[in-house]
Amino acid sequence: MKSAIGMGSLLWAGIGDTIRVSLSAEPEQEIKVGFEMLKSLGLRTRGVRVVSCPSCSRQGFDVIRTVEALEARLEHIKTPMSLSILGCVVNGPGEARETDIGLTGGGAGKHMVYLRGVTDHTVESDNMLDHIVRLVEAKAAEIEAGEATAFDPHAAPAQTAEAAE
After folding, report:
1. How many domains does the chain have?
2. What are the CA-CA distances from residue 13 to residues 7, 17, 18, 40, 102 (Å)?
3. How far is CA 39 from CA 48, 76, 89, 146, in A?
4. pTM of the prediction?
5. Residue 119 pLDDT > 90
6. Based on the domain organization, do 120 and 62 belong to the same domain?
7. Are residues 39 and 117 in the same domain?
8. Which tens digits make up the pLDDT trace of 92-106?
9. What CATH number does residue 93 fall under?
10. What is the per-residue DSSP string for 11-40?
11. Quick one: 38 and 50 in the same domain?
12. Which of 29, 56, 79, 117 could form a disulfide with 97 if both were Cys (CB 3.0 to 4.6 A apart)?
C-alpha cells in the first residue's frame, strides 16, 4: 500500500521511468503488482483490467471468488482489454457499459453478459467462469489479429454508411 501511494504519486506527476516493488512474496508477485500500479494510472496496459464491486447483500453470486478465479485463469492474456464483474443488476449495467466484456449477477442462477457495453445474452451460474474465459480469449485473439480493437466507451460512435449518405 505504501509503495502504491508513494510511487503512484510520483508516476502520476510524470516523475520517473523505472519502478521497483518489494513484497514479502514470490518475485513474480512483485512484477504483477508493478504492472497493476501502472495499469491503474493509465501509464501501461497489459492484460485484462478487471473492474469488480465490493461485497454487499445484493450479489447474485460470489464476486470475490469469481474474480479470483478469473484473474488466475486469464493471467496468460497480455492483450489490453477490460472486464467487469458485478454481483447485481443495480450497479452492474453502468460498469458493464464501460468495458469490453461485462457480467452482472441476476436471479435464479442466470447472469447478464455485456459485450462492448451492450446487453448481449445470459449465462447460467454453472457455465459462467468457462464462458467468460472463452469470451475474453476470443476477444484477445480478435484484437491481436487486427479484427477488433479494445472497447473505448468515450470514443465517438462509428458512423454507419447509411448515416454518412
Report:
1. 2
2. 10, 11, 14, 14, 31
3. 10, 16, 27, 22
4. 0.76
5. yes
6. yes
7. no
8. 888 899 999 999 988
9. 3.30.413.10
10. HHTT--S------SS-HHHHHHHHHHHHHH
11. no
12. 117
Which residues contact residue 53 at a Cβ distance below 8 angstroms, ignoring those fewer than 6 apart?
59, 63, 85, 86, 87, 88, 91, 92, 95
- Phi then psi for residue 130, to 5 deg, are -60, -40
* Alpha-carbon distances, residue 158 vs 98, 115, 164 (angstroms): 16, 16, 10
Containing structural domain, residue 20 = 1-44
Q: Given a cut of 90, is residue 84 above it in pLDDT?
A: yes
Q: What is the mean pLDDT of residues 75-85?
A: 93
The CA distances from residue 32 to 37, 38, 75, 118, in Å, are 9, 10, 10, 30
> Is there a single domain that holds both residue 144 and residue 74?
yes
In angstroms, how far is CA 30 from the centroid of its own chain? 20
* Burial of 91 (C-beta count, 10 Å sphere; 0-12/13-18/19+): middle
